[in-house]
Write a structure and sequence with these properties.
The chain has 17 helices and 7 strands. The protein is of the alpha+beta class. The protein has 2 domains: 14-110, 60s Ribosomal Protein L30, Chain: A (2-Layer Sandwich); 127-393, no CATH class. The strands form 2 sheets. The chain has a 5-stranded mixed β-sheet. A two-stranded antiparallel ribbon has the order 1-7. A hairpin with a 2-residue loop joins strand 4 and strand 5. The chain is globular and about 65 Å long. The protein starts with 9 loop residues before the first strand and ends with a helix. Bound molecules: iron/sulfur cluster (SF4). Iron/sulfur cluster binds at residues 232-233, 277, 282, 285-286, 324, 326, 331, 334-335, 338, 384. Iron/sulfur cluster binds next to helix 15.
C-alpha cells in the first residue's frame, strides 16, 4: 500500500477525480511543455459530468488560453472511466501526446507510467495480515502507521487542522451553492436550529449532520477540503471527529491517531478495490468514508482490533450497491445529504461493534472484495455518468 499522503490530500473541491486530479494534470502538463498549447479531450465520466464538476474550468484556470477543451461523451474502450487525451501543439502541429487517467482521490497517471508509479510504503495489503502483525507485536493501528511512515503524525495534524477549518468555514457560510441547481447551504441552519424539547440524542444527530453539511457544502462551493477518501465524501470523517472534539472533548492528539487508523482502512479499500465513484459507484466513496470513519471512531474509543475491523466492515457492508448519480453532474444532490447520513451510520456501526463483534461472520477483507465486484457489476449509468437514477429522473416526475 502507498503512503497515507496519497489518500488524504488537501486541495480544492468539488471532486477529487474531476477537479483535483485534472488540476494536478494541468500543472504537470505545464511543467513538461512550458511553451506549448494543448488540445484536451475529456472522455467517459470526465466528459459526462465534467461541466458540473468544473473540470474544464480548473484546466482553464491553470492553462489559460493555451488549452482547448473538448467533451467527447461517445468514445468507448477507455483505459479508465476518467480518461483524457492530450495533444501537445507547437505552431499548430502536434509534437507530443499523453493519455492521462484521473484514478480517484486526486491521483493522476500519465501514459507510460504504471498505476504503481508511486512507491509502495506498507508491506501488508490485507486487514488480516495487518491484524496478525499488530497482535504479534502488541501494537495499535496508529503505532503501526507511525512506525512505517515517520513524520505521518505531523502530516495528519495538518490534515486535521484543514478538516476543522473546512467545517468552521462551512458552518458560517450562507447562500446558494454554485452550479445552477439552486441548492441553498443548510449547515448553519442545522447547527443553530435547536428545537424546544429536543432530546440529547436528536441534538447529537442534528449537530453531526450540520458538521457533515458544512464540509460538503464547502466542497460543493470549490472550497479547500481534505479527500477522505474523496472530495465528494469529504464530510463524513470531519463530521464525526469534529463532534468528538467539540461535544465529547477528545484531544487533537487522539483524533490524529484515529485518522491514522481510518487511513489504514481507506488505504486497504483503495489498494484492493476502489475509492472512485466513476469506477465502483458511491459505495466506493461514501461507503469507504463511512468505513474509515467507523474505524477511526473505534480507535478513538480504544476498542480492540477485532472491534475496529467489525465497525469498518459493518459500515461498508450496508453501503454495498450504493449508486453514484449526481444531479447535473454537481457534487450536491444526493452527495451533501449522503455525507450526513453516512456520518450517523458510522456511529451506529461502532455501537453495533461494541456489542456484537464476537458474533460476526464477515471479515473486512471480504467486504472490500465484495464492494469491488459489486461496483464492477454496476451499470455504467450508476458510476458517475449522471445518466441514471436520480440524475435521470430529477425534475422529470
Ligand atoms: S453520488 Fe457519491 S460518488 Fe457520486 S459524486 Fe456524489 S458523493 Fe461522489
Amino acid at each position: 500500500m502507498k503512503s497515507l499522503k496519497e489518500l488524504y490530500r488537501i486541495g480544492a473541491g468539488p471532486s477529487s477525480s474531476h477537479s483535483m486530479g485534472p488540476e494536478a494534470a494541468a500543472l504537470k502538463l505545464q511543467e513538461l511543455h512550458p511553451q506549448a498549447k494543448f488540445k484536451i479531450t475529456l472522455c467517459g465520466s470526465l466528459a459526462l459530468t465534467g461541466k458540473g464538476h468544473g473540470t474544464d474550468a480548473v484546466l482553464k484556470r491553470v492553462l489559460g488560453d493555451s488549452a482547448e477543451i473538448i467533451f467527447d461523451c461517445r468514445r468507448e474502450n477507455l483505459p479508465h472511466p476518467n480518461s483524457m487525451y492530450v495533444s501537445v501543439l507547437q505552431d499548430g502541429k502536434e509534437v507530443a501526446s499523453h493519455t492521462v487517467l484521473s484514478v480517484g482521490g486526486g491521483r493522476i497517471v500519465f501514459s507510460g507510467e504504471s498505476l504503481a508509479a508511486t512507491p509502495e510504503v506498507y508491506p501488508l495489503n490485507s486487514f488480516e495480515a495487518i491484524k496478525n502483525y499488530l497482535n504479534e507485536n502488541e501494537m495499535r493501528l496508529p503505532d503501526y502507521v507511525f512506525s512505517i511512515e515517520p513524520g505521518m503524525e505531523e502530516y495528519l495534524t495538518q490534515v486535521w487542522a484543514q478538516m476543522r477549518a473546512t467545517v468552521k468555514e462551512g458552518l458560517n457560510a450562507e447562500g446558494e451553492l454554485p452550479g445552477g441547481l439552486k441548492v441553498m447551504r443548510k449547515a448553519k441552519y442545522l447547527w443553530q436550529s435547536k428545537h424546544i424539547g429536543e432530546t440529547e440524542e436528536i441534538a447529537e444527530n442534528r449537530i453531526i449532520c450540520a458538521y457533515a453539511f458544512a464540509a460538503s457544502e464547502q466542497n460543493a462551493a470549490g472550497g479547500r477540503v481534505v479527500t477522505a477518501p474523496t472530495c465528494g465524501s469529504c464530510g463524513v470523517i470531519p463530521a464525526v471527529m469534529y463532534y468528538m472534539k467539540k461535544q465529547r472533548k477528545f484531544t487533537d492528539e487522539k483524533i490524529v491517531r484515529a485518522l491514522a487508523a481510518a487511513g489504514v482502512v481507506g488505504n486497504l479499500i483503495k489498494t484492493n478495490a476502489s475509492i472512485s465513484g466513476a469506477e465502483c459507484g458511491c459505495q466506493a466513496e461514501i461507503g469507504s468514508a463511512c468505513s474509515m470513519a467507523a474505524a477511526g471512531l473505534a480507535e478513538l474509543f480504544d476498542m480492540d482490533i477485532e472491534q475496529i475491523e467489525y465497525a469498518a466492515e459493518v459500515a461498508m457492508e450496508h453501503h454495498l450497491g450504493l449508486t453514484c448519480d449526481p444531479v447535473n453532474g454537481l457534487v450536491q444532490i444526493p452527495c451533501i445529504e449522503r455525507n450526513a447520513v453516512a456520518a450517523m451510520r458510522a456511529i451506529n456501526a461502532v455501537n453495533i461493534a461494541n456489542f456484537l463483534t464476537y458474533t460476526r461472520k464477515v471479515s473486512l477483507d471480504t467486504i472490500i472484495k465484495t464492494m469491488y465486484e459489486t461496483g464492477r457489476d454496476l451499470s455504467k449509468d450508476y458510476r458517475e455518468t449522471s445518466e441514471g437514477g436520480l440524475a435521470k429522473l430529477y425534475n422529470k416526475i
